Every structure is written in C-alpha cells, then in structure tokens.
Amino acid sequence: MKDKIFGVLQRVGRSFMLPIAILPVAGLLLGIGSSFTNEATLEMYGLTAVLGKGTFLHALLLIMNAVGSVIFDNLPILFAVGVAIGMAKKEKEVAALSAVIAYFVMNIATNAMLKLNGEILDTGEVAAHVLEGTIASSCGILTLQMGVFGGVIVGLGVAALHNRFYKIQLPNALSFFGGTRFVPIISTLVYMFVGILMYFIWPVVQNAIGALGGLVTGSGYVGTLIFGLIKRALIPFGLHHVFYMPFWHTALGGTMDVAGQTVAGGQNIFFAQLADAANVAHFSSDATRFFSGEFIFMIFGLPGAALAMYHCAKPEKKKAAGGLLLSASLACMATGITEPIEFSFLFVAPILFVVQVILAGSAYMIAHMLDIAVGLTFSGGFIDLLLFGILQGNEKTSWMLILPVGIVYFFLYYFIFRYLIRKLDLKTPGREDEDVELKLYTKADVQEQKGRKADAQKDAVSEAIVRGLGGKSNIADIDCCATRLRCTVKDKTRIDGKVLKSTGASGVLHKGDGVQIIYGPNVTVIKSNLEEYMSKSALTDTVRISSPVKGIAQKLSAVPDEAFAEGMMGDGVFVLPQEEIIYAPEDGSVAFVFDTKHAIGFVTDLGVELLIHVGIDTVKLQGKGFEVFVKAGDKVKKGEQLMRVDLDYVKKHAPSVATPIVCTKIGENQQVILLKEGLVEVGQPLFEIAEKGRKI
Amino acid sequence: MKSFRYTITDEIGIHARPAGLLVKEAGKYESSIRIKSGEKSVEATGLMAVMSLGVRGGQTIEIVVEGSDEEKAAAGMKQFLEQNL
C-alpha cells in the first residue's frame, strides 16, 4: 500500500515537471520586466531617460512582464492539463482535452453558485462584503481563488476518470459516445458537481487563512516567524498572495509616520522611507519583516537544496536533472521566483517541503531580529537586493548581514536535503526508478482486470488484427473514424483479409497501402486495445545481449563449424576472442557448466537462454586450457568473470578459438541481429533478438 | 507411455553438438519426450535443459515417450541414440 501511494506520488510529481519546466523562463521575464518598469526604481537611479515611459526598452520590458505574467496567471489550467497528461495511461491527448473542459466547467459552476448567492453581483463585479482576494478571475471566469490547487484537483480527477472510462463500451445505440469520446462527457458531468461542492468547501479554507493573519500582527518576532511559516506553506495552494498582500499594503502590516504622513503596510512604509531616504538613518525592519528574510533563502538556501538534489541524482540522469535544477536556481536567485525549485520536490517528497517551510519561515524572523531592512518590489531575488539593499548602502539596510546568514542557510539546506533524500530514498528529479512506471502499469492493469479472460480476448482480437495486417513491422499507421479502423501498411501483399474479417469486422476495404476495417461505432475501443497491445508487445519484442568477451564479432553463419553455422544449436553470433576472460554478458544465472569446461549455459534475467561455447571442437581438450569460476545455479551480474581460457593452448590444440554465442530457444518469428561486426569490447551490445521482418 | 534405457557409448557424452541433434530429433514427434538421468528429468526438446543434464560417456539415461505417435517416437529416438551416442 505504501509503495503504491509512493508510486502514484512519483507519477504525480513527474507529471508536474511538464508545466514546471516553463516557470524559470516565465520567472525571469516577469522578474526583469517588473523590476525595470517600476517607476519608483527608475526615478531613483535616473534611468527614466533610457527605460522610462515611451522608450523602446520600456515597451520591450512591458511585453516581457506581460508574457511572464500570463504564464503565472494561468498556472492552474496549465497544471490541470499537465497533470492529466502525466497521469493518463493511454490516449493522453483525450485526457488533456477533458482537463481543459473540466477546468472550465468546475470554475463556471462555482461562478454560478457565487452569483446565485450574491457574492458576485449582476453587474459582474465582486460584492463589497467579500474578503479581498478570495474571488479572482481565472481564464476569464470569476471564481474562488483556488490557485494551482484547483488545477491539480482537475488534473488528478480527470486522469482517474480517463483511466477508468477510456475503453468503456456503451450499448449499441449509444456506442458512438463510447471509448475515449466518453471521457470529456463524464468529466463535464463530474466537474459540474465538483464546482458546486467547492463553493461550500473552499471558503472554509480561505477563512482559516484569514484568521491566521490576526495571529501574526499581535506578536513581535514570533509573529514574524508565524507569518513566514504560513506564507511559505501556502505556496502550493496559490493562496500566499491572499495572505501576505494585507501585510504589505494595509494597516495589518503596521503603520508609521513618514515625512509627515501616515503610511500603512510594510512595503508601503519601505517605499515611503526610500523616497524620503535623506531623512532616514536606517529603514524600519518592523516594516520589512514581511519580506527581507526572503533574500536569505531565495538567493542562498533554495539553490543549496537544488545542489543537493543534483548531487543525489543518478549518474545517468544528472545531466537532465541538472538542466532543470540549474535553470530553476537561476530564476530563484535572480528574480526570487521559487516555484520551479519548490514544485520539483513538493509533490514527490512532501517532507522536504516541510523542511523548506520551517527553514524559510525562520529566515523571516532572523532577518527581523538582525534588523535587516532590504525592500523589494516583487520577490527576494538578487535584482531586488541590488536595487533596494546594496545600492542603498549597508548603513541604512544592513544588507551585508544577509551574506553570512545566507551562507549558513545554503549549507543547512544542502545537508538537510541531501541527508533526507538519501536516507528516505526520496524520488527528487533524477532519482526516479526507470521501471516504476512499467511496474505501476502492470500492477494497475492487473487490478483493472475484472477477469483475465476479458483481457485475453481483447488481446486475441488485437493479435489477429496485427497478423491480418502482415505483422507489426508492416503497420505504418493506425487511426480510426466513426466506424472504421484505418490502417496504413508498408506492403499490401502481406495483408490477409480473411484474418481481418475474423476479428468481428463487417467488411474490409483495400485502397493502395490503406486498409479500412469496418467494425461499427465501437471501433475506438478496438483501436485503444490494439494500440495498447502493440506497445505492450514492443516492450518484450527486442532484447539486447552484450558481448561476454573482447574480440572480433561476426555472423554465426561464418563460424568454422557446420553444426553451429547452420543454426542447429540456435541463432546467434560468434566472437574470435582476443582476451582470456569470458564475462557474464548480462545479469542472469548459470544454467550449466560442461564437465569439460569449454561451454557454459547462461539464462539472462529476461529469460534469454544462451550457450557460450568457447572454441570449436574444444570438447576434446577434456578441460585443459579452461578454468571456470562459476557453477550451475550461480547468480551473476553483467561483467562478472565466468571463466578464463588459455588462448594459446586452445589455438594449438583445437581447430579454432571461435566462440559461438547462441540463443538456444528463440521464437519462430524472431531473429538475431548482429549489432556490431568487427572489434567488440566486453559489455558492448553484441546482438539483439527482434521480431522477424524488421530492417537489419 | 513408452520408455527405454540407453547407455551412452560415446565417451565424451552429450555435449553441445549431439545435444543439438537430439533436440532436433525429439522435435520431429508429436509426443512429449523426456530424458531422465539420475535424479533429473528434462524435456528432450529443450537444448539448454538437455545440456544441463551433463550426461557423460558410460552413463545410462532413460527416455520416456508419451503421446499420439509414441511408438514411432520411441523407435526413432532409440535409433538416433544408437547411431550418434
């Protein structure tokens, strides 16, 4: 059970990667765009002439800002689609379409409920009594602000519906709506009710958050800590804006007299003081306590976490994980956009997010206690640190204290993350199990099977279709319309109309390389089954075997021994060894060792039976010249030593050292393809066992 | 079911090549053919299995044939063994 949850979480996490990959770029655009279009900033540094309104660069920055914003503003629907694609097993495009539909349906249902109950007025405006920020526009629909969480609800739910129903068969009269076409339909109905339900559930969540706000204001440093913890914890729900905005811009964040005027809200106070900088000795850290701490964990801490994840990635996946983590770190450090990093571990390893919340939350408090008062426009990246910290001078902002604290944070993040990832084997980017997806599929598939017979029957139909079309290798493309399976084949002479007819078709039409098999409206189900069958058989179809010895590889037919050359012992290849040690070609076990030590039977973990026969007629050497390190039944890993052969001795006393490596059991429709003719190293792919008819 | 015993006369026993021939011969018949050697008993149509018996010259094996053409199969196998092993 635990494994199952874990596996599902891992898939959820992986499905997040698609939309997350865009965030660093969006973050940079938004961060740079918004920092350099801020009028206060421009005036401060006398950049109005270059970047002020009306200049070309200003227009460009505004567009960058808008492009970045549109991605962040629409994160919910991006996640809805991304998660649906990631979690759907087959026919992913249908799940994507359904997710878009479900997202609209859910929000409009909530919107209708809000209208019915007067929270949204007939004029289309939000009623005055509604707490600010709780109702917002999403894709043009005024709805409850559910943030990314809303998108995830849609993505997961639609994927579940999709996996359950994409092969549904409906009664004949309705069968046009069966199969994948049913998924958008059921998604619409279900999410109408989800939307209605959200109207009742979500405000409870929102109110709880609002109540927390009161807690913060009351209590000094502890209040800052609570603020930090809550703000960071709200990120995945997209509700942090609802939460922190009042502290930044209303009296909830304190009031202060600056230059003779009463200013309310942390960020407002800072910018008022900035404008009046000549008369301020040190900016107020009571005002900046709602954001100054962000520099510590955004510039230093989270990149430390990213480095830890990179170091924990599997060697073969380091490159890919590194790309994602590096760009995410850059976005975070430069602009203070943390989502790319946070989302990379949040869903796959929630425990790490707990760590992040605690560390980041306490950073706000530490900054407050150290009287650090660096302001920001948008978030705690280097751009803002430069503008509102470094350029303002250490006397007024104490920005230099961020450096030592930040360095400590970097190491804290790095070591805690590394320890937890290794200890709990968390599946952060680059640590996913290669075969988990596969295993999950089979497990889930097994559970889905109401009876194995039904499945076998489906496969029998698919198998017959493939056979009728001349084998998998002959099929170029499969598609379907309302009633027909439309296939394109490479060689039309291999089509067997009778076999196709026997699969329940009411007719078969040929036209050039095209074949149309007419089934009726349930064709979408047949097509889904067929595609599944074909991808399934692809997995077991081709198996690669690596070379057990360094030498010259050639086709088996050239071996100087008739029995082997004719394939009597099976299909395979042979190698003229250049080194004395024979290694295990793959993971597997030793089936037997001849008493005369010149041949070893080997069964790979994938079930391929191999005979490794060292030298020709070497049975007559009676074991001389051979030293075997394994015995029957031994389990060995690829690359372990199996035996040593005295090449000089064998060359002198036997016709040849040619070493056939043959598959003793091979299917009628299978063949061995030599992958490397000529010099081959130990462990290099030597041959593969593939379906007949494939190009060699 | 038919069975008979045979003592291997070829002094090197059932090594790779004769095993290949034996498997080929056994594959000609419909009946299931098993080879017993000491404690072990394997399908005569599996090359790997036959080789794993490690039968040496002088050892006695038992061939057990069962199926629709068992008469023919037993005779064929006997002839094969006498000629090759």
State the secondary-structure class of chain B: alpha+beta
The CATH architecture assignment of the domain at 543-691 in chain A turns out to be: Distorted Sandwich
Outline the biggest β-sheet of chain B.
Answer: 4 strands, antiparallel
What's the CATH topology label of the domain at 543-691 in chain A?
Answer: Glucose Permease (Domain IIA)
Q: Give the CA-CA distance, first to last residue of chain B.
A: 23 Å
Shape of chain A: globular
Any idea what the CATH superfamily of chain B is called?
HPr-like
CATH-defined topology of chain B:
Histidine-containing Protein, Chain: A
CATH class placement of chain B: Alpha Beta
The count of helical stretches of chain B stands at 3
Based on the coordinates given, report the CATH architecture of chain B: 2-Layer Sandwich
**What assembly state would you assign to the polypeptide chains in this entry?**
heterodimer
Could you state the order of secondary-structure elements of chain B as H and E? EHEEHEH
Give average pLDDT of chain B, whole number. 83
CATH superfamily of the domain at 543-691 in chain A: Glucose Permease (Domain IIA)
Assign the structural class of chain A, choosing from mainly alpha, mainly beta, alpha/beta, alpha+beta, or little secondary structure.
alpha+beta
Please list the strands of the largest sheet of chain B in the order they lie side by side: 1-4-2-3
Rounded to an integer, what's the Rg of chain A over CA atoms?
33 Å
